[in-house]
Amino acid sequence: MNSSADLLKELRIDRKAPPSQPPSRRGLWIGLGVVVLLVILAIAGWALFGRDKGIEVTTAPVAAISSGSASASVLDATGYVVARRMATVSSKVTGKVQEVLIEEGMRVEANQVLARLEPIDADAERALAESLLQAARSNATGVAAQLKEGEANVRRLNQLVNTQLVSRAAYDQAIAERDALRAQAISAQRNERAAADRLRIAVIGQDNTVVRAPFSGVVIAKAAQPGEIVSPLSAGGGFTRTGIGTIVDMDSLEVEVDVGESYIGRVQPKMPVEATLNAYPDWKIPAEVIAIIPTADRGKATVKVRIALKVKDPRIVPDMGVRVSFLEAARPAEQSQPQGVRAPGASVVERAGQQVAFALTPENTVEQRTLKVGRALGDDRQVLSGLSAGDTVVLNPPDELKDGSKVRLAEEGKEE
């Protein structure tokens, strides 16, 4: 019985509440993840949109003034590079081009063959002249032999006529024949010389079919092709070339500028000049005045001035634009020491009645410098104080740029 009662107790339903389960941590981790994601998005948004990129600017370095550029410019002008020796080379005769041996940019030497014309006519003329010369020589040789015989005959008859073995008439006839042969010999010799001269002319005509360079230089234009007709007189109209190519002596390059009549009094021969090519604005080329052309252009009211370049460089080519600055005469050695530095003129601005510039710092900020400026040096300015050689300054500073402003270079802004 006891065992049955115990079994029944075990089958009894327990009405008490079951023990509570421990709380789940899954929701906590989800919440933390959302918070972290929001923080990351906030940081990225600040990095992309909230960061101060700074004012976009362009910069340029400040350079020391060399002793050669310490002279002040008394006059500025513009002009072009020209060549004193430039030639369009053509043949001396009209003919068809057989071959052209030049290309643009090729360096040629004096008397170098540039092209050849078809020499058919010239070869025929030379062959004919050689034949005529041979005929003239043969005729002269025959007449000389006859003359020799005639002179010998006269000598024999002279002895016989004295002994009265030959009549006087026969002797006189022999003398006449000798004199005639002498005249024929002189004529034959002249014909031989004329034939030789004609042969030399034919050789010259044959040589005229070869076009040679008149001087050393560089080919800047190729004007003819094989098969075209060239003529120095351009007699064939639009289908006839007048030249083979154009050669320039690069050692004869100089600068020609037009100076206004009102300022020509400032220019003197041998005056120092600083030339700047438009293609290389940072390259200052030393030069000097060669001559002032003694005539004026009434339409432009200018006078032409020739300027010699003291530097020979392959970068200098004809028809390049150039700006020149006529400088003061050289000063004594004790007075020629340059003062200050050379800064771009676009970097100097006026703020609050003072000349200032903004120098770039290592932290990509700018520092406003108060300047004491000197004379103009072309597009640059002489700065006596406020800047040092090696400083980097802002070009064309905007109005919102202040001391301590954060900046970024224009190139960096384009990359972003």
TrEMBL record:
Residues 255-327 form the CusB-like beta-barrel domain. GO terms for molecular function: efflux transmembrane transporter activity. Residues 387-416 are annotated as: Disordered. It comes from the Bacteria. The chain crosses the membrane at residues 28-49. Residues 85-231 form the Multidrug resistance protein MdtA-like barrel-sandwich hybrid domain. NCBIfam families: RND_mfp. This is RND family efflux transporter, MFP subunit. It comes from Pseudoxanthomonas indica. The lineage of its organism: Bacteria, Pseudomonadati, Pseudomonadota, Gammaproteobacteria, Lysobacterales.
